[in-house]
Amino acid sequence: MTQLSSALNGLITPEMEQVAASEGVAPEIVRQGVAEGTIVIPRNNKRQNMIPTGIGKGLRTKVSASIGLYGGNGSMDSELAKIKAAVGAGTDAIMDLSVSGDIDAMRKESLAAASTPVGTLPYYQAVAEAAQKYGTSVKMEVEELFEVIERQAADGVDFLAMHCGTTMSIVERAKQEKRLDPLVSYGGSHLIGWMLHNRQENPLYEYYDRVLEIARKYDVTVSIADGMRPGCLADSLDGAQVQELVVIGELVRRAREAGVQVMVKGPGHVPLNQLKATVTLQKSLCKGAPYFVFGPVVTDIAAGYDHISAAIGGAISAWAGAEFLCYVTPAEHIGLPDVNQVHEGVVAARIAAHAADLAKGLPGAAEWDLELSRARKALDWKKQIDLAIDPGRAGYMRKTRSDDTVAGCAMCGKYCAMDIVSQYLGTSKVTC
After folding, report:
1. Rounded to an integer, what distance in angstroms lies between the CA atom of residue 137 and that of residue 129?
2. Is 131:54 a contact under the CB 8 Å cutoff?
3. Are the beta carbons of 40 and 153 closer than 8 angstroms?
4. Are residues 308 and 166 in the same domain?
5. Do 210 and 237 fall within a single domain?
6. Does residue 262 share a domain with residue 133?
7. Pairing of strands 62-67, 55-56
8. Are 225 and 160 in contact (CB under 8 A)?
């Protein structure tokens, strides 16, 4: 039985119990959320070395980090170092988006190295193998695509991202829309190129039941990605994007009926004033399925700082109801991130996720901030650093940029405002 079919039959699985314990909620709440489709627990039934993670309504907002082989300079060692950095920074999931090199070996290493759920985008590998075999990806056979999907699921991948809702009619709609950036999705653009060259419907849509059959066999969560993801603010919420979301909503229903957990991967570039509407629309059309958002970045000009732009968008999106944030690194739009930028991207996304959990009044979220505030009031530097979202960075800055011989905070020294006010109000005197 899958997690979804178990939940629908009133059964609380060990995975549901583990998620409930980590979230501080009753197991029945998790079971009910899985049954309704508002919570997913991505865990392939072949995975042994991972900690089950719940994503969805009423749970802590989760963060995903992407790695993967790309180009001639990529190496498994460097990507494994990025996984280690991402997990160390607190990511809740890893996506292996390898597009070159030994993709099978990289995926197996990713699954072995990560204790988190691991996702992939199988079309990436299908494209790479077709290009190597035929000299061009547009000659890929449909059977070859489904062989890759089954291969990745059989290896233990927990969630598969696929552009199942990108249909020929939506491609035509995009043409009429005259987008500024027609296609920015790597997988979506290659898929549409295949569709146009072969004059065939999207096989992931046409043979969607086969996708669900594979997913059900391995209890893989399907993450329906949007091929019409806006790549600039000017294209946000255009007709093609909305039309695809309508189709995705129908595919969500069919997945649930097949006993397959499903979530929806969403837009990339969205202006602040459209974030709430975008999330609300997805929640309505996709029947409350967990929303996995890429950022979103809220301005097109933040090259080199897109992790900040994405943190702004991620916080507001999660406050509006999105439950899963795909990190964005400072290298976005410029090049591939190094280990340090992976770390920065995860931390920025985690800050956004926690800020949203605070705004939503998620039980337990405020206690972390309250505890740190008490440590700050007491000028307990060790505890402040231990409670920081990135203790390593906080500790380094305290050590290198302050004078531990001076009482009070780093800014005020002996003129510490907290100390002066505490004495005046007759509260306990603070000490460094």
Report:
1. 8
2. no
3. no
4. yes
5. yes
6. yes
7. unpaired
8. no
**Do residues 240 and 318 share a domain?**
yes
Total domains, the chain: 2
Q: In sequence order, what are the residues at sequence separation of 6 or more whose Cβ sits closer than 8 angstroms to the Cβ of residue 121?
A: 95, 97, 160, 161, 162, 187, 225
The structure tokens 């009044």 sit at 361
Domain that includes residue 328, residue range: 39-359
Q: What's the average model confidence in pLDDT over 356-364?
A: 95
Summarize pLDDT for 261-309 with one digit per residue, the tens.
999 999 999 999 999 999 999 999 999 999 999 999 999 999 999 999 9
The two tokens of residue 157 are 């991948």
Rg, the chain, Cα only: 23
Is 251 inside any structural domain?
A: yes
Count of other CB atoms within 10 angstroms of residue 166? 30
Given a cut of 80, is residue 429 above it in pLDDT? no
- Rounded to whole angstroms, how far apart are CA atoms 357 and 360? 5
One domain for residues 286 and 396? no
Residue located via tokens 């146009």? 196
Q: Give the number of other Cβ atoms within 10 Å of residue 158's Cβ.
A: 30
- Confirm whether pTM is higher than 0.70: yes
